[in-house]
Amino acid sequence: MVPNTPLAWKIFIERRGLAQMTRGRASILVLISVGACAATAAVLAKDMATPFGGTTQISDSPKEVMDQAWQIVFRDYLDINGKYTPDHWRHLRRDILAKSYGTPKDAYDSIRGMLATLDDPYTRFLDPREFKEMQIDTSGELSGVGIQLSIDKQTKDLVVISPLDGSPASRAGVMPKDTIIAIDSKPTKGMSTEDAVKLIRGQAGTSVNLTLKRNGQSIEVKLIRERIELHAVEHKMNASPNGVKVGYIRLKQFTATATKDMRLALQDLEGKGAQGYVLDLRSNPGGLLMASVEIARQWLNEGTIVSTKTRDGIQDVKRANGHALTAKPLVVLVNEGSASASEILSGALQDNSRAVLVGQKTFGKGLVQSVRGLSDGSGMTVTIAKYLTPSGRDIHKHGIDPDVSVKMSEQEAQQLKRDDLGTRKDSQYRVAETTLLKQLQTANSLQKTYSPTSANLPAALPATTRSLETAPN
Question: How many CA atoms lie less than 13 Å away from 41 in the CB half-sphere?
Fold first, then answer.
């Protein structure tokens, strides 16, 4: 029996794929997603760090890697906490390069200490193993057991945010807010998400045992690892109580296939006569930036979609290109787990008055990270920009407020099954459908206006006149 799959209340998801990066060389790619600490936006940049002029001679590989990491911050870092100054950063460089390092691990610890002075959880160093683990293919597949993880900010416990639909974790009954207290009998107290991921991941077909704490009780769960295929888009045709055809589309993640999948879903629903749409972005943690832009272009015929702002000002603006696939009324469902790329799409549709947002305030993550490979196979992420909605809103830490606010109770979220999403059993969907029907009624009333090329006389007359014309003698 497939267990209930509740909606995630907060999504901090374990590292998402950053795609096919090789040592010393990587394709340009932008990822707007939820990272191990919180929602992030990331850029896989082709350029590598180059030696920074100075008096310290760099001869050994560890110091070269350290200097590369230092330069990336010096060149591109967007200070989000007021902890960075160029003078202090230069002083740090002199200190770290003046020391001797016996092993790469010693150098890595020094780099982590240097980055920690920024007090920015999204600017972090990854050793070669951690960096390789980030290179999960964004084609829509993941390896593992399908658990989204986070560290509770207050208790520092390792907690489950949500199991992926249809994953081994979901089938085994792992639930949101479960605390993972041990992995294969190894206690997780003080363990980072990176270390937890190392233990949980493994070759398909092998097993991992999790000890969970739920409502004060300890639960042992054995999971068999497998290759998990992620279907980014699900869609179906719903019928409202009065017979209106409502196209329901659930977009779960902005993967490399999401744009194509969305196009196919829209074409299928258009062909079946959908009169309006509900786009479900609830608990969508994000994904590829260009996927969010291209999907916005499928709904939006004109207008700005998103802009990014570095420490030097506005650097890039993405706009619609006049190739929207439909102009029919649209309602977008969002919640606290709708993050990053979901917020870009939601903000673009809301600011351009293309859609009505229904649900709860979104996650609120508007920072951009650059993901860089270093010369020894390690890597790092560094905050380089923030993104703004078309109206110039900075949604970081604020999120996007829905036009129609409707909260789902925690009890309903726990009881709602995956197949119940987008049905009459889903209270937020019911409000979204009602909102869509109101839009359709408004659109229909506007269409019933006088046309000078027709004999549409009643539509051209005031309401009082029409009532006189139709009154009985």
Answer: 29
pLDDT digits (tens, 9 = 90+) for 302-333: 999 999 999 988 779 999 999 999 999 999 99
Instruction: Write down the residue that tokens 């939006």 correspond to.
Output: 300
Cα–Cα dist 163/228, whole Å: 12
Q: Does domain 145-229 have CATH number 3.30.379.10?
A: no
pTM: 0.70
Q: Please give the residue that has the higher pLDDT: either 6 or 159.
A: 159
φ/ψ (deg, to 5) at 239: -120, 125
> Has domain 233-364+389-444 been given CATH number 3.90.226.10?
yes
Amino acid found at 343: E
Q: Considering 33, 292, 340, 346, which one is annotated as catalytic?
A: 340
Where do the domains of the chain lie? Answer: 145-229, 233-364+389-444
**Is there a catalytic annotation at residue 340?**
yes
Q: What is the DSSP string of 201-230?
A: ---TT-EEEEEEEETTEEEEEEEE-EEEE-
Sign of CA dihedral 134, 136, 137, 139: negative
| Active-site pick, 280, 365, 370, 386 | 365
113 confidence band (pLDDT: 50, 70, 90): very high
Q: Summarize pLDDT for 294-309 with one digit per residue, the tens.
A: 999 999 999 999 999 9
